[in-house]
Design brief:
Helix content: over 70%
Shape: globular
Strand content: under 5%
Number of strands: 0
Number of helices: 9
Length: 230
Amino acid sequence: MKSILLCTIAVTFFISCSADSDFEAQEKQFSAVGKGVAKVQYPANPKNPFDLQGSKIYHLLDLYDQKNKSPNSVSELAGQIRFLLQELESSPIRTGRLIPFTDELVESIMEDPDNSMISMVQSSTLQSYAKTSLVIFLQELIIKRQEAFSVTYSYITAYEAEVLNDAAFTSDEVETILTIASISRYSLYSEEERKDKDWDILIGNKSARPFFEINEVPLIRIISLLGRLI
């Protein structure tokens, strides 16, 4: 009787351990799949027909980062933006006015990003309705700049959906606004990745205080590119 009881306990213990092992394996598998999905999802938005425009900026930023350190001064950020503008001139991305880009322009945007952005949008050829829509979108983006990327991603993709469903925009305006939204998404995500890389590098080392505030670089970059996109 005692032998039967011991055997029963042993079998039960074995089954329990196997079940726990199977559960842990499944949990790891689902976790890996989840991470894979997130990696594919961010920062793309397949519903935006001009998503590729933002992707090109993202790859240009990656190319620049491979040969240069992250911008930590006005002149360094101006150099990065000049690099993007030079590449845009030879790329299929549609460009608008040719505005000379200087260090002083970066400084003026830093001092007052909201009014700098409004001034650029208001001087564009967009109709009033499109100007108002784009200004509100970018103003909210400025407000949300310190939020997690998942929050800004949801905000941007929701706006892109609104633009696609709004018949008041012309086809050219839809392309312009969705290109700016796509570039905003990818630019903010690029900054998120850069911060992660910098954190990995600086672990164990004393880090210098950054010159720019949280997500200030991508916002200045987005506003600076407006002159070429609208």
